[in-house]
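Hi all, long-time lurker, first post. I run a small reading group and we've been trying to get comfortable going from sequence to structure in the token notation. Rather than ask abstract questions, I figured I'd post a concrete chain and ask someone more experienced to write out its structure so we can walk through it together at our next meeting. Sequence below, copied exactly:
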Amino acid sequence: MNFLLEYQRRLLPSPLNIQDFDESDWTREFERLGSDDVDADLHRAGLMVRRKCSPLWSMRYLLDARLNTVTKVRVTLALSNHAAHSIVRLMKSHFADEHEAGQPLVPLIDLGLDR
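-- Answer (accepted) --
Happy to help. Here is the structure in token form:
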């Protein structure tokens, strides 16, 4: 749980941090600190969250002059909602599978994904 503890102490950048997060650094720190299944779950979850949210952060559609402001806001909310539902569905499925396999069930809040 060393990786998780470092993350909870905010010594590792959050996957939701656009400027500071780097997947290779995240993986390197996991390889250095990761010690159990909880750490491995946090590592995988961080990568998944980052990949799901990347399209939102690019927001190239905001520069499209053909779209009015209301449409841009609607697109942003729809993308955010889709990403959030997708992430929650995948995480529930992942933890349910592990729980059935006899692995401990770790709440998302314990992984620090609520930030």
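A couple of things your group might point at:
The mean pLDDT is 79.
Residues 2-111 form one domain.
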